[in-house]
Design goal:
Blueprint: H1 3-7, H2 13-44, H3 46-65, H4 67-80, H5 96-122, H6 126-133, H7 136-169, H8 173-218, H9 223-251, H10 265-268, E1 273-275, H11 283-303, E2 310-315, E3 319-327, H12 341-352, E4 356-362, E5 366-374
Helix pairs in contact: 2-3, 2-4, 2-5, 2-7, 3-5, 4-5, 5-7, 6-7, 8-9, 8-11, 11-12
Organism: Hamadaea flava
Domain Signal transduction histidine kinase subgroup 3 dimerisation and phosphoacceptor: 189-254
Catalytic activity: ATP + protein L-histidine = ADP + protein N-phospho-L-histidine
């Protein structure tokens, strides 16, 4: 065995020793209480002492069962033993099994700390005392042996504690379920951000590609059109930058806001026929209606030769209906991004609001997407 491997356990003696010494500190009041009860037993008899022992046991057991004690033990084990333990839920009631596991850990910690503290107080002074009063060489040798044994004992007890901590301080069933729910919410949030990127930046890039292609084709024969196309590319690029900044804000763990996007349907599609007041819609419904129109225009630009698909928005008493109709086929061949996530993303959005969506070809070689979003 190499020296490096032999000395490797001693690298963690410091923090693990501190953790075990915390146990010895906690054990001190128990030791004092035990000594006091022993004195009562000796001076007042067993009858009086037994009643006090029952009261003392209840007092001594109480800290082990408190949720706050479990939280402190988790924090200490995570910091000093390098154990990966989740934070306990502050509003969750501990079940009996979790309480008993935490109590067992508490008393193991106190017991281990008491043994270590007693060893340090009783055994370690023997070597220095021998060195001073009997033989210096023998005393120093004994002291070195005691320190070495103590260091490896601390390393061993710390390793054992690190192994047992996840078992006795691990999450309860409620905490595991809550962690799974939080993870699911995080995945849903990531999916939502992916949709935001697809629907906003993807739309702007598609329009920019179409406009750039048209400008290149007509640059020499129709410079005015080319100039308008370049202006449109500039505008869409600004919108994409704003949308990208919005999504990056969400990625920085900002809360999802329920307000509407900066644009509105009339600004997105000037030719849209809008019936009713869009301002009466809740922010989340208004935003999804905007995204549906945006996605419809993007698909029309990608797959059809229809620069101005028909857009109809009707705000009813309880539902807003969004309908986009465009021509089929013959459009520019632009590589799809996201493997066709556009329509599936719309279905997910509409389903989250409790609405429904239909999409498919209709008579006259046209394609129609209709979504119904309830808001009341």
């Amino acid at each position: 065995m190499s020296w490096r491997r032999l000395l490797d356990p001693l690298r963690t003696v410091g923090r693990r020793g501190v953790y075990l010494l915390l146990g010895s500190v906690i054990a001190t009041p128990y030791a004092v209480l035990g000594w006091a009860l022993a004195q009562v037993w000796r001076t007042n008899g067993a009858a009086v002492a037994l009643s006090l022992i029952v009261v003392g046991a209840a007092i001594g057991l109480t800290p082990a069962l408190l949720p706050a004690t479990r939280g402190l033990q988790i924090a200490a084990a995570r910091t000093l033993l390098d154990v990966d333990l989740p934070d306990p839920l502050p509003d969750a009631r501990l079940d009996q099994q979790t309480r008993l596991r935490a109590a067992l850990w508490y008393f193991l910690h106190v017991g281990g700390g008491a043994v270590l503290g007693a060893g340090l107080v009783i055994v370690l002074p023997a070597g220095p005392v021998l060195a001073v009063s009997y033989n210096a060489a023998v005393g120093l040798a004994i002291t070195a042996a005691e320190v070495t044994v103590a260091a490896y004992a601390v390393a061993g007890l710390g390793a054992l504690a690190r192994l047992m901590a996840p078992v006795l301080l691990g999450p309860s069933a409620v905490e595991r379920i809550r962690a799974l729910e939080e993870r699911q919410e995080l995945l849903l949030e990531h999916n939502r951000l992916a949709r935001e990127l697809h629907d906003s930046v993807g739309h702007a890039l598609t329009v920019a590609v179409v406009q750039a292609g048209a400008a290149r084709e007509l640059l020499r024969t129709d410079p005015e059109f080319a100039e308008r196309a370049l202006a449109a590319i500039e505008e869409r690029s600004r919108e994409a930058a704003a949308d990208l900044d919005h999504v990056l804000g969400l990625l920085r763990r900002d809360r999802l806001r329920e307000d509407a996007p900066s644009g509105d349907i009339a600004g997105l599609a000037a030719h849209a026929k809008i019936t009713g007041d869009l301002g009466r819609l809740p922010g989340v419904v208004r935003r999804e209606a905007y995204r549906i129109v945006q996605e419809g225009l993007t698909n029309a630009a990608r797959h059809a030769d229809d620069a101005y698909p028909q857009v109809i928005v009707v705000v009813g008493d309880r539902t807003v209906t969004v309908e986009i109709t465009n021509a089929l086929g013959g459009g520019p061949r632009i590589p799809r991004s996201g493997g066709g996530r556009g329509l599936s993303g719309l279905r997910e959005r509409v389903a989250l609001l409790g609405g429904r969506i239909e999409a498919g070809p209709i008579e006259g070689a046209r394609w129609r997407v209709t979504a119904w979003l309830p808001y009341a």
